[in-house]
Amino acid sequence: MSRHLYNFFKTIFFIGLLPAQCLAQGLVNNGGSITLIGSVQLYIDGPDGHYTSQASGSIIPNSTSTIALEGNWLNNSSNVAFTTDAGLVILAGSTQTIGGTNPSAFYNLSLAGNGIKTLAVSSTTVGGQSTYSGILSLGSSTLDLNANRLDITNSSTGAISRSSGYIISETSSTVNPSIIRWYHRTAGGSKIYPFGVDGDYIPFTFNITSTMTNTAAYVDVSTRHTPSDNTPWAGASNVAPVVHMFSTNSSTLANGTIPSVIDRWWDISNSDPITADLTFSYRGSENTLNDALYVPNGLIGAQHWDGTGWLPNNATIGSAPSVTIGVGSITAVSQSSFCPWILSLSLSPLPIELISYDGVCHSNDVVIEWCTASEKNNSYFTIEQSINNVDYITIGNIYGNGTSHIKNCYKFIGTSISSEINYFRLSQTDHNNQTTLLKTIAVEPCNNAKGKIAIANDGSKKIGIILNSPTDQTLELQIHNTLGQLIEVHLLEAKAGDNNFMIDLTNVSAELYYASVYHFTEKLLCKKIVISDLIR
């Protein structure tokens, strides 16, 4: 067979029980279909033995067929490289790349040979396009996500197997793009995200106790080491600014990033409601805790950031002594709220453990109520009000309970709001005049004449609007992408009373969007929706 095999024909058939071998510079599929029939083994030999697909090239695998290569896998075709769910691809070389201009949709993918395998194109999938029963086998190999997302479409607990291999998620980006997206769908069980770095295996376990109901639902997870005071996470709009961390050490009272927090973070997000036990692993070398005077025995637990504060008290959901050598782990039991997670000393970085914070209308007044489970050196609370969530004015102060380990509840009666949504921000000031923002809520007008609105989407290209309108009126549905660009506009001709609209988003691609309902220039409701190619 020639050293450089080009496919100039419409279809090439590989048939039989014996392996077919391509040498040296590999195989280029220039727009054809490669059909594998029977137990054929196609082996592309040598470090330059790449498989490159371009134009509309594709592979039609067989359930027992195998493609093994020692070079790179490059998909530059206009499709996902495979036409059906079947067969096995083995990366058998030393240092190899999965790349190209388009992602590939592998069924079974096995990593072998030596060296690191690098993902060079995001949204590469393993597990299948429709049957969802394929396996990613890491073996003893290392897969570097390299700031890309890997999608696991098989929802079973064994969808990723390994002996001593692992997946690298480390980056220094403010928001980590090295993500494993696992489509758990409606399945339960304990799913292990097999992360690791520098020879250490630090898995994250997501043990599902209450499943999602959407057959296209997934959970995204990434992790990385955060040296230098966790600064990679500071200042991003959707992650925790480190200035909110708290330490009781007198020399670091305003900043607990070094003495109170393990130098590893996890970002977890779910497309649908789900409850799970979370087990976090970290390296002993990432333990820089030196605030042991605050918590006896150096007990640590997991906490998550809800956008305005650290919740919950980590001692109540599972804690354990920290380690300084080897690998340690902590399990947070029965969690349903996600986003950035950290491991911290018990009660740090929480000057206040806030149980609830809510605003309700009573007659024509707004009643702001909140409860704490514990307080540390708490002098007073401050309540602020805004109509745009930017410019705030102070409307009241309430004395705190100093240091307390029992439940305390507070109430503040504010002025009536009747024309638009108002925002109420709660902060806490301790006896050393250190102020911490706790939470912000939005409260609808007490005499709301705009009716009730709900937006529903199941991942398909259809979006439902349920609207109870006080009058006949014309509203506007706007679809924006994550860059804030307006993608589509649809008019909603609402009648007085209950209305149901079904809007077809035919022209949008599979991605994250924001659906907003407007009355003239006033935004009435905004909801994040995820369009998936896996939902038809």
Average pLDDT, all residues: 82
Beta content: over 45%
Low-pLDDT parts are 1-11, 15-21, 235-240, 248-254, 292-297
Q: Whole-number radius of gyration?
A: 27 Å
Q: How many DSSP helices?
A: 1
Q: Helicity, in percent?
A: under 10%
- The geometry reads as globular
Q: What summary fits the major beta sheet?
A: 10 strands, mixed
- The count of β-strands is 47
| Span of the ends, CA to CA | 43 Å
Structural class category: mainly beta
Task: Provide a concise account of the structure shown.
1% of the residues lie in helices and 51% in strands. The protein has 536 residues and is an all-beta fold.
Written overview of the protein:
- The protein has 536 residues and is mostly beta strands.
- Among the domains are: 16-168; 352-443, Immunoglobulins (Immunoglobulin-like, Sandwich), CATH 2.60.40.10; 452-530, Immunoglobulin-like (Sandwich).
- The chain has one helix and 47 strands.
- Strands 13, 16, 19, 22, 27, 28, 30, 31, 32 and 34 form a ten-stranded mixed sheet that branches. Strands 1-4-7-10-12-15-18-21 form an eight-stranded parallel sheet, with no helix packed on it.
- Strand 43 and strand 44 (486-494) form a beta hairpin.
- The longest helix is centred in the middle third of the chain and has 4 residues, at 227-230.
- The radius of gyration is 27 Å and the shape is globular.
- 41% of the residues are buried.
- The model is unreliable at 1-11, 15-21, 235-240, 248-254 and 292-297 (pLDDT under 50).
